Amino acid sequence: MDAVWLEDQILSLRQDVPIPVPGTGEALIQVRLAGICSTDLELVRGYYPFAGIPGHEFVGSVVSSPGDPSWMDKRVVGEINIACGECETCRSGLRRHCERRKALGIHDWNGAFADYLVLPLDNLHLVPEGLPDEMAVFTEPLSAAGEILEQVDIRTTDRVLVIGAGRLGQLVAMVLRQTGCQLEVLTRYPKQQELLARLDIQTLVEDSLASRKYDLIIEATGSPDGFELASKLIKPRGVIILKSTYKGDAKVNFSSTVVNEVSLIGSRCGPFAPALKLISEGRINPRTLIDATYPLAQGIAAFEHASRPGVLKVLLKPAGR
Q1: Cβ(161)–Cβ(229) under 8 Å?
Q2: First to last CA, the chain
Q3: Could you tell me which of 13, 90, 150, 289 has the fewest CB atoms within 10 Å of its CB?
């Protein structure tokens, strides 16, 4: 099958990758659409030493499901964490944090930038009938944005700032808008401002932030500078939620965090069901974030496009779809 292959931080196109074979309790999925996210770009930069097929945002159709034919021909999206189900963390209900977990297109499991992928049936969610692929493909990143609501209670009186209005930051803003909080988003590029303005979300530039203080800040810049800015803008006993992953280490002075009793919360993957509900009910329309769609055979060009400053979502479409 065709696939985008990553090895030693070098991307290549391959036509010789065997179609994966699902085991009992797994499904072979023909990829319909897949999205390039910032984590994929960071993998190329060396964020994690992954070798194989990247990509974890996808919508596809089940073409084989040994032991459970009821999944055949179903359109699905899939959670990215493959858990062992046996370790202490799994037994406590935290399968996303399995001690031996693998991660689709990130760690020890080939991903979605290919004609086909395999995932456990437990990871799959049915796509509602009538929901376009171009919207369903956003389920995984929207679930990551929605995880914030699983971690903190947000009141309508809370002043909330999203730092970073890129691929994930836009989705975070869309989710937080549902709470009715006093939401503002720090932006860099005119298109970011335009998309948020359509949703009546207030945007800011960094020069206007000097005297502002916030109850909750979501850091989604993909840069260590984002945390430094958040530390300056958070109220005493406020909460900073960290969404960024990137290559390298951040140099952080935690003195102000201690003195101001600020809570730091790491935030990663989230539940799929609420994300699918938001999209299917029309409460969130992520399709506005699509900048380009490339055939899988032009995967290298797609990555180059996605890495340009200010670009939002770039999708890959296998030739068979």
Answers
A1: no
A2: 13
A3: 150
Instruction: For 3-145, list the strands marked E by DSSP.
Output: 3-7, 10-14, 26-36, 57-64, 75-78, 81-82, 102-103, 116-120, 124-126
Q: Is the pTM of this model over 0.85?
A: yes
Quote the tokens at residue 155.
């009141």
Question: How many structural domains compose the chain?
Answer: 2
Residue identified by tokens 């040994």 is 66
For the stretch 24-41, what's the b/e string if a residue is b when 16 or more beta carbons lie within 10 angstroms of its beta carbon?
eebbbbbbbbbbbbbbbb
196-223 average pLDDT score: 89
82 in Cβ contact with 123 (< 8 Å): yes
Rounded distance between C-alpha atoms, residue 56 and residue 294, angstroms: 17
Q: What is the pLDDT of residues 133-145, one digit of tens each?
A: 999 999 999 999 9
In sequence order, what are the beta bridge partners of 60?
31, 76
Residue tagged 């493909």 (tokens)? 137
- 276 in a domain, yes or no? no
CB 28 within 8 A of CB 22: yes
Token representation of residue 31? 């990829």
Assess contact for 270 and 145: CB atoms under 8 A.
yes
Closest of 185, 122, 175 to residue 146, by C-alpha: 175
Tokens 């069901």 belong to which residue?
A: 273
Whole-number Å distance between alpha carbons of 298 and 318: 10
- 151: domain CATH number is 3.40.50.720
> Average pLDDT for residues 299-311, to the nearest whole number?
96
Domain with 21, as residue range(s), is: 3-127+285-317
CA distance 195 to 312: 11
